[in-house]
Amino acid sequence: MSDAATPAPPHAPPRHPMLARQVRRHLAPGGQGAADGLLANPAVLRFLDAVDAAYRDADREGVVLSHSLETMSAELLARQAQLRRSAEAYRLLFERNPMPMLVHAPDTLALLAANDAAVAHYGWRREELLAMTLAELHAGATTADAHAAREAGAEGRAYTAEWHYRSRAGEPRCAELTGHGITWEGAPARLVLAVDVTERRGMEARLRQQAFHDGLTGLANRALFTDRVEHALARGGRAAPPTVLFLDLDGFKRVNDSLGHAAGDELLRQVAGRLVATLRGGDTVARLGGDEFAVLLDPVTPEGAADEVAGRVLAALGVPITVAGREVRVGGSVGIATHRPGATAGDLLRDADAAMYAAKAGGRGRAARFDPEMHRRAVERLELEADLRHAAARGELRVAYQPVCDLATGAVRGVEALARWEHPRHGAVPPSRFVPLAEETGLIEDVGRWVLGQACADLAAWRATLGDRAPGYVAVNVSGRQLDAAGFVDDVRGVLAATGLPGHALTLEITESVIMRDADAVLGRLRALKALGVLLAIDDFGTGYSSLSYLQQFPVDVLKIDKSFVDHVAVGGGGAVLVRTIVALGESLRLRLVAEGIEHPEQRNALRALGCGTGQGFLLGRPGPAPDLARRLAEGAPA
Ligand code: C2E
Ligand code: MG
Ligand code: MG
């Protein structure tokens, strides 16, 4: 305040009425005059001016302030509304989400909230659910699972785990739970997404089952079996060395071909059931494919017990099985291999396989233990088999013809076709080696078809060029496996049609053992063949165990007396008696007789004397190529 201020006129209206009133009120005790005096004092007036100015400034700022407060609160309201909207959106996102979601306390796992999907999925009412913990809701989940969830909650980390639990209805289920930290009603909590993976895991389990099990029998498949053997090998140590049994069924193909695939499948299922019933729980039974089975013995099986187990398996298979309403018999051959140092699972299986082949070669229904010599033979067999597969296509197969002669005149009545294999490296492989191999592998069907076709074509050619000097018939050997094959009768019909031969120009030779193996099944085939007009011969007669009652039923025309009888026919004693008996049998059944393997004139004479009119053997003619025979026929007298 400055002293130089202009004094206000004495009765001028006060410059600051409000302030002046205050001054007068406060100075009232001093009298009105004092107040007026003060108000006339320029210094006081200046002071009052300053106060007034300050008030005015304050007023102005107040306006500004209230204005900005207003805008701020409007913004806040807008923000609030926005937040409310987004909270609403989040609430909807939670509540209406089709994925079950739960909120729980991080430490206790007590459930704080559950969305509609969770309520529907778990089958509890919301109140019930909110009285539970996450662990209680997933009854049966492990405590380790609950512990891990609490731990992740305490550390505020996200976590995912698969919980196996029982639903409210008691069904086993599987949930994939993913937990995240959130703030729920102002406090830290966990949001859990619960994905039900029961179906997916079930599907995966089924796929695994399919990948490691045989779909038909439910047994382990080759992959799983090999894996188990590998594990057994790796365990080694205290347990007995792993032992594998390899089983191959006999007669499966016949059932499959004659009764159909459904019956074949049924047979395999029943065999699988028998194996499982015969073996112990700790043994692994597998179907390796086709009619091959394998067993890995329980490691606690005492060493040496494998033979006993194999015996039990074979005995179980020996009992007839009913499929498609028919009683069928299947046997089997078992190979046994025990681990040898350094062998892999594949080696062990191969050893057992080789032993099985050795068992089969020794006669059906047997078991054999592996020895290394079998391995060598198995390798050789494999090579031969691979070569045989291409033999026909590469022109390595031939047919040799052996004349069947009248024992009195020496005239050629017919010829027997005998297969020959000219192997490019091994030279001539005898039928005794490759025919059994071809039978085991099924290649006999191709080889046999080729021989049949060639033999008929050759006879047709001879008939065309030699006229009545041509042999009256060609005899073709037929293996059991060929006879079993579905298309065999059609093959024969087709060959006859293609070559124009009458049925009686073809004789089919079937060994006695094949005929007796499954007489009922074979009978139907033989009748179908007879209907084509062909003749049927029983080969190697006397070596099998023919039932005479069957023999009578069979539509056979020829009995071929086995060489083993012929060998002894001329030396007197029992040999001649046996041949005489066979001749008598043949005559009473009205069968033609052909003696095999005649090497000496005495044998021929003895046979003639006993009433056997025809025969074959080195004495009468060795098997030879078609042109050799044609030459002999062309030179010789008419047959
Ligand atoms: P198999 O049908 O009994 O044929 C007679 C066998 O005795 C032939 O042997 C023949 O060469 C031989 N042989 C003939 N005369 C004499 C003789 O005086 N002395 C001696 N020691 N042997 C004689 P091969 O040709 O070695 O055939 C052996 C067996 O192989 C045949 O016995 C037959 O069972 C089978 N086989 C041959 N070719 C075929 C074929 O195309 N298919 C089938 N499934 N089997 C065949
Ligand atoms: Mg024969
Ligand atoms: Mg024979």
Task: Describe the overall structure.
With 639 residues, the chain is an alpha/beta fold. The protein contains 25 helices and 21 strands. Helix 9 (222-235) packs across helix 13 (345-361), helix 11 packs across helix 12 and helix 16 (444-466) runs parallel beside helix 18 (488-499). Bound molecules: ligand C2E and magnesium ion (2 copies). One magnesium ion (MG) is lined by residues 416, 477, 509, 539. Residues 416, 477, 509, 539 line the site of one magnesium ion.
How far from one another are the termini?
167 Å
Question: What number is the mean pLDDT?
Answer: 89
Morphology call: rod-shaped
What ligands does this structure carry? ligand C2E, magnesium ion
Identify low-pLDDT runs: 1-5
* Number of DSSP helical runs: 25
Layout: helices, strands, pairs:
Layout: H1 17-27, H2 32-40, H3 42-95, E1 101-104, E2 111-114, H4 116-122, H5 126-129, H6 134-137, H7 143-155, E3 159-166, E4 172-184, E5 187-196, H8 198-212, H9 222-235, E6 243-250, H10 252-259, H11 261-278, E7 284-289, E8 292-296, H12 306-318, E9 321-323, E10 326-328, E11 331-338, H13 345-361, E12 367-369, H14 372-391, E13 397-406, E14 412-423, E15 427-429, H15 431-441, H16 444-466, E16 473-478, H17 480-484, H18 488-499, E17 506-511, H19 512-517, H20 519-530, E18 535-541, H21 548-553, E19 558-561, H22 563-568, H23 574-588, E20 592-595, H24 601-610, E21 614-615, H25 626-635
Parallel strand pairs: 11-12, 14-16, 16-17, 17-18, 18-19, 19-20, 20-21
Antiparallel strand pairs: 1-2, 1-5, 3-4, 4-5, 6-8, 6-11, 7-8, 9-10, 13-14, 13-21, 14-15
The structure holds ligand C2E and magnesium ion (2 copies).
